[in-house]
Specification:
This protein is mostly beta strands and 163 residues long. The protein has a single domain, classed as Porin, CATH 2.40.160. 12% of the residues lie in helices and 59% in strands. The chain is built from one helix and eight strands; from the N terminus they run H-E-E-E-E-E-E-E-E. It is elongated. The relative contact order is 0.22. It comes from Flavilitoribacter nigricans (strain ATCC 23147 / DSM 23189 / NBRC 102662 / NCIMB 1420 / SS-2) (Lewinella nigricans). This is Outer membrane protein beta-barrel domain-containing protein. Keywords: Signal.
Length: 163
Amino acid sequence: MSKASKRHLIVPFFVLICCMLNLPQAYAQPSGGNFGLGIQFGEPSGLSLRIYQPGRMSADILLAWDLDDFFYANVHGTWEKSLGGSGDFNFFYGPGAFIGLRERNDRRLFDGDNDVNFGVSGTAGFNVYIDRVEIYVRVTPRLLLVDRTASDIGGGLGFRFYL
């Protein structure tokens, strides 16, 4: 991962922290339903889905793409731990897996024409709930297992609206 890519992940993280410190009121869990739908910006960007289960493992799904003609689905089981007594800020983490398709040759993690890739991943980050909206920042290390072994790291800043 280049220094510029790392900076693109760090800047949104600090912006999110500054925004969270100025929030008037936050909640320990979404006030809407248990299904969250939103967008993640970062490496990669995509559609973010979450099936929230308080006190248990929640399903976290990212259907993503990047500018290198790559599409993939990343699925994690996440647990959430409250930071501090108020429950306003949370730390989440969990294991997962991904499957992806790259349409052109690239010297990064995924290479070759029209490759199908599979691997394991993990995710960790921070979130806050404001009424029916979740704002989060995450880091996602990945380990490619098929058709070769390689590693990469991604992440992003996102939000979800709970229905």
